[in-house]
């Protein structure tokens, strides 16, 4: 505030000059008017800035620009009118040369109101323009970050599938079942093809329906269950009316791959995976926790990517819950309208 005092004094001079506020002759009258103008400028600037800051905290996001701007204009004008009226009354009493009457008060109020309102509108407009530009830049950066996260997701999924271990296990399973069950082998190849095709076809999408994601998850689970048999047990409990909602693409596949990668899957310790929807519009992916003694190339890239993508898409957190016996990831289920509104409001 102290650093802005020279600005207030300069604006005080400019107000006196541009609005011709000196109605008396002599240097003393000029300096009195400069002092009054500086005082008005101080209260107009600081008061309106406080109003603007408060409204920015209430309507902080890019999607609330119109609402915030209308509120700023209305409340700043109200504050300016009341502040000018109060300052006019105080200055009449302090000056003491004129009687404190309604006529004198309204006369001084009318003189001071016009420059005060002009200054208020200029200050609000400049502040809002700067804030809008800042939020717009943030929007661009967030959109670019979301693109990078999607690319990272695609890369991570493709990397896990092109991984020699994945290909070796898939081909080894295929070789085993070809002589025993040729029809199953054909289905296995089709499911494998579906998984790869889904990754390539959805590389540019930010959201997919839960139905689409479940379809490829079922194909991926078919490959895994063909390999592990009854050692992998999967239960899905997803109501039909939830399948039209949206999630980030490749999310389920990454979580299923994560469960297989980090847990023992054996006759003695079958891995149980449960996918279900809770009433708060969330999809839960849950597995019993039976960690492998060592996991090659173990990183948290997959979970980190999912969490970051949801933060950019809808501002709703992805929950990772670890207990002594279970590992759970809770994913928000979105509607397109809610996702777009959350994204705009979050910027």
TrEMBL record:
GO molecular function term, any single one: phosphorelay sensor kinase activity
Transmembrane segments: 5-22, 28-48, 69-95, 115-133, 317-336
Name of this protein: Putative two-component system sensor protein histidine kinase
An example Gene Ontology CC term for this record: membrane
Origin species: uncultured Cytophagales bacterium
Domain (Signal transduction histidine kinase internal region) ranges: 154-232
Database matches in InterPro entries: Bact_2-comp_sensor_kinase, Sig_transdc_His_kin_internal
Keyword Transferase: yes
The keyword Transmembrane helix is annotated on this UniProt entry: yes
Swiss-Prot/TrEMBL keywords: Kinase, Membrane, Transferase, Transmembrane, Transmembrane helix
């Amino acid at each position: 505030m102290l650093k802005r005092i020279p600005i207030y004094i300069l604006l005080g001079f400019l107000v006196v000059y541009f609005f011709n506020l000196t109605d008396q002759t002599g240097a003393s009258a000029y300096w009195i008017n400069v002092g009054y103008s500086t005082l008005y400028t101080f209260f107009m600037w600081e008061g309106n800035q406080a109003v603007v800051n408060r409204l920015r905290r209430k309507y902080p996001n890019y999607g609330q620009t119109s609402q915030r701007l209308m509120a700023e204009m209305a409340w700043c004008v109200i504050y300016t009118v009341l502040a000018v009226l109060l300052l006019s009354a105080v200055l009449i009493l302090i000056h003491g040369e004129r009687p404190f009457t309604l006529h004198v008060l309204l006369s001084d109020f009318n003189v001071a109101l016009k420059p005060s309102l002009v200054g208020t509108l200029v200050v609000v407009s400049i502040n809002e323009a700067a804030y809008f530009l800042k939020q717009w830049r943030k929007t661009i950066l967030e959109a670019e970050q979301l693109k990078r996260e999607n690319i990272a997701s695609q890369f991570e999924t493709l990397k896990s599938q092109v991984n020699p271990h994945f290909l070796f296990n898939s081909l080894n399973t295929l070789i085993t079942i070809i002589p025993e069950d040729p029809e199953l082998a054909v289905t296995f190849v089709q499911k494998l093809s579906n998984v790869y095709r889904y990754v390539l076809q959805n590389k540019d999408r930010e959201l997919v329906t839960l139905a689409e994601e479940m379809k490829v998850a079922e194909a991926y689970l078919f490959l895994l269950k063909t390999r592990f048999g009854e050692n992998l047990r999967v239960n899905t409990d997803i109501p039909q009316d939830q399948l039209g909602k949206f999630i980030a693409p490749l999310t389920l596949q990454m979580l299923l791959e994560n469960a297989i990668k980090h847990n023992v899957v054996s006759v003695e310790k079958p891995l149980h995976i449960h996918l279900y929807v809770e009433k708060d519009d969330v999809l839960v992916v849950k597995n019993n926790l039976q960690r492998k003694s060592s996991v090659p190339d173990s990183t948290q890239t997959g979970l980190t990517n999912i969490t970051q993508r949801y933060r950019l898409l809808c501002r709703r957190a992805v929950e990772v819950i670890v207990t002594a016996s279970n590992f759970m990831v809770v994913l928000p289920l979105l509607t397109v309208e809610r996702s777009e509104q959350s994204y705009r409001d979050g910027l």
